[in-house]
Amino acid sequence: MNTSKPVLHRSLKSPIYTDNGFxxxxxxxxxxxxxxxxxxLLCGLSAGGDIDLCGACERSLPRLDKxxxxxxxxxxxxxxxxxxxxxxxxxSTVQVPLLYQYPVDLLLQRFKFSGQLAAGKVxxxxxxxxxxxxxxxxxxxxxxxxxxxxxxWKKRFTRGFNQSEVIxxxxxxxxxxxxxxxxxxxxxxxxxxxxxxxKERQRIPHSAFAxxxxxxxxxxxxxxxxxxxxxxxxxxxxxxxxxxxEGAKSVExxxxxxxxxxx
Length: 263
Ligand SMILES: [Zn+2]
Ligand SMILES: [Zn+2]
Fold this sequence. Notes:
Layout: H1 23-35, H2 55-59, H3 82-86, E1 94-95, E2 98-99, H4 104-114, H5 117-136, E3 145-148, H6 153-159, H7 163-175, E4 178-179, E5 184-186, H8 198-202, E6 209-211, E7 222-230, H9 234-245, E8 250-258
Parallel strand pairs: 1-8, 2-8, 3-4, 3-7, 7-8
Antiparallel strand pairs: 5-6
Helix pairs in contact: 4-5, 5-7
Bound molecules: zinc ion (2 copies).
Residues 40, 42-43, 45, 53-54, 56-57 line the site of one zinc ion.
């Protein structure tokens, strides 16, 4: 007879993660995160530290190495990429620790489409660590305000949550920076990026966004705009232009992961 206990960890295998958008699922996910002992989200072994990844899985994550100083597009040598040289973005820089490759893509899909909050928390903690390292090494200073990329209300209603807000809340806690989700809003419900061609994605206009009811907080502020993944960068560029138009002093982009521009 097999007397060994089943391994209990916060994985997607739980049936509570099989559907999208239900409050009960999110409450249970949050409760399991608080109550169950830490286990690695990728292999199920004991995580041991303050993050739900074991040391081996954390070391195996695909890190972004040499990249463009502005848009963080992977490059063979440090510097500024041709695209940024020909058309300077309105944001100052992109902070992003990881590449959107296995298993980062798996964790992000669990977080975004299956509501696994623990996966979102782990990725947000990795971004917070990256930011702390950058600050400690004198490469950047912390911004004054975090702004999550807004979802159109219809999309937020369908998905049940805005992944950028979840990431922003975690970063706010880890780094002790204020955040505001009502400073800017999305007024055009654009189709999901993965359903658009590259040309269509590049045409997202800054009129897709407008000042929210707390836009006065933007005046003179150094802002970090927070999103999950960067693909073409057209959404964050449109939003960054809108934030600058509303009086922001500077805008930088914080992301969990990015795809190489050529992919
Ligand atoms: Zn592991
Ligand atoms: Zn660039």
